């Protein structure tokens, strides 16, 4: 994870890596999982779109499947 800010591809808002409580992500069709509060995810400040790299998906998968 490079933790560099970038522009959102959907709304052109600013995307920064943040941690936050009470986040969920659609992991597989119809399966939502909670994201740990201390797991940083690139998130748009305007539309809320979350961006995960392959490495971050693998890290999150390990945490979720514990």
Can you put this structure into words, describing what you see?
With 66 residues, the protein is of the alpha+beta class. The protein has one helix at 54-64, and strands at 6-7, 14-18, 23-28, 31-35, 41-44, 50-51. The protein has a single domain, classed as Roll (Ubiquitin-like (UB roll)), CATH 3.10.20. It has 1 helix and 6 strands; from the N terminus they run ββββββα. The chain is globular. The model has no long low-confidence stretch (mean pLDDT 89).
Provide a concise account of the structure shown.
This protein has one helix at residues 54-64; strands at residues 6-7, 14-18, 23-28, 31-35, 41-44, 50-51. It is α+β, with helices and mostly antiparallel strands and 66 residues long.
Key words describing this protein structure:
1 helix, 4-stranded antiparallel beta sheet, Ubiquitin-like (UB roll), two-stranded antiparallel sheet, 6 strands, 36% strand, globular, alpha+beta, 66 residues
Low-confidence segments: none
Order of helices and strands: EEEEEEH
Share in β-strands: 35-45%
At CATH's second level, what is the architecture? Roll
What is the CATH level 1 assignment?
Alpha Beta
**C-alpha end-to-end distance:** 22 Å
**Secondary structure tally: strands:** 6
Main β-sheet description: 4 strands, antiparallel
Q: Nearest-angstrom radius of gyration?
A: 12 Å
- Main-sheet strand order equals 1-2-5-6
Domain unit count: 1
Q: For the residues shown, what is the average pLDDT?
A: 89
Helix % is 10-25%
